[in-house]
Design a protein that fits this description.
- The protein has about 300 residues and is α/β, with parallel strands linked by helices.
- It has helices spanning about 5-10, 25, 30-40, 65-70, 70-85, 120-130, 150-165, 195-210, 215-220, 240-250, 265-275; strands at about 15-20, 40-50, 90-95, 135-140, 185-190, 235, 275-285.
- The protein has a seven-stranded mixed beta sheet with strand order 3-2-1-4-5-7-6, with helices on both faces.
- Helix 5 (about 70-85) runs antiparallel to helix 10 (about 240-250) and helix 6 packs across helix 7.
- The chain is globular.
Length: about 300
Amino acid sequence: MGRMLPADEERGLRLMAVHAHPDDESSKGAATMARYSHEGVEVLVVTCTGGEAGSILNPAMDTPANLARMPQVRQEEMERARKILGVRQEWLGFVDSGLPEGDPPPPLPEGTFATLDVTVAARPLVRLIRQFRPQVLTTYDENGGYPHPDHIMTHRISVEAFEAAGDPQRYPEAGTEVGLAPWQPLKLYYHLTFHKDRILALHQGMLAAGLESPYAKRLGEWVDRAEDTGRLTTRVRCDDWFEVRDRALLAHTSQVDPTGPWFQVPLALQREAWPTEDYQLARSLIEVGVLPESDLFNGVR
């Protein structure tokens, strides 16, 4: 169905990417954001928590001094990554829930992000959507991409905010009561960073080049699920921005080991084997035509 674009939409394109922790924005959709920012799209990363519960995963950073100031470390890393990607960034201000371990896992700490009521946690995101007025919003699927409680909660509040921000009757305290008009994003996407086709292509590319693949174990343990069939709807070519993506990821020095598996596949091989970042179009209020598509703003431009 065709429609006229409101004047505000004609002013420019805006993309909002909602993530759980600092560093998630650099491991999921980073090259896409860097490409769009370079092309003149306004890009805003929304980070739900401060990543306070994250462990230090880079041995070179694992010191008592860094552990004592993890919140500040993560903020500094996020600022460096943001500048590398050429995007804006906002914090929602929630507390990292951590990843519980054990059988059964222990309860999450009271008051952390994943323990909150969805309507409470979605309120500041609704406000940001009404302020920034994105046409496109990206986040995680219902499983969080992987089942971290904060990733699942990020999905839940993103869907809630996508559906509520355009309704003046919902969240008036984050809208009309503070002078913000309703705003309805047009498209909602889920990241498909680690889907099987991509991992298999990279794995086979490594073997063909005579290199050891970091994906052999993952593929050997892979369980195909019926609900994952047909998720891939959108492939955004952004191989020219893979190097920028990697620099942004390396900016999160406490979380990323530069000698780790993230960087074992040469960039030239990645560009040849799988030059896109991939998404599932989960909601669309506009006609997009035949899928798959190659642009998050397909139907908006």
